[in-house]
Amino acid sequence: MGLTLPAVVVGALVVLRTIAAVCLMLGFRTRVSGLVAGLAGYLVLAQDAFGYFHHLHMLYLGAILFAIVDADAALAVRLEPPKSSRSSLALMRAFVASIYIWAAIGKLASEWGTGAALTMFRQSGALEPVAWLVTPERAAAIEICVILSEVAIGAGLL
Questions:
Q1: Considering only CA atoms, which of 119, 113, 98 is closest in space to residue 148?
Q2: Are 18 and 56 part of one and the same domain?
C-alpha cells in the first residue's frame, strides 16, 4: 500500500506541483520551484503503490536536479551568477546519458533485437504510418540500430 494522504492534501499537492512546474519552466525561482515541483510530484505519485510510471520518476527527478544545478544562470526571469557551471552541466549530462544507457540495457534484457517487439507493434496497427519501413525482415535490424543509437547518444553525452 502506498502513502495515504487525505484527498484535499493530494489535490493541494497537484495544484502546488503544477504551479511550481510552470514557475520552473518560466525560470522563476528555479531552485525553489524545481524542488517543490519534484517533491510534490513524488508525494502525489506515492499515493498509488502500483501506479509507478518511470517517465514520471524521470520528470520529478529532473525537476529536482534543475533545483540543484545552475539553471537560473542561463534562462531565468532574474539571472543569477553561476556557482558551479561545469559541475551543473556535467550532472545534467550524466542524468540524460543515464536515461539513454539504461534504456539500451533494458532492451538487452528482453526480446528486443529479435524483431519481435516491432513486429508486434506493426501487427497491432500502432506503426501504420511507417509500416512500409518496419517490415518483418527489417524489424530485427531496426531494433538493433535503436539499441546502438541509445548507447551512442548516452556515451556522446558523457
A1: 113
A2: yes
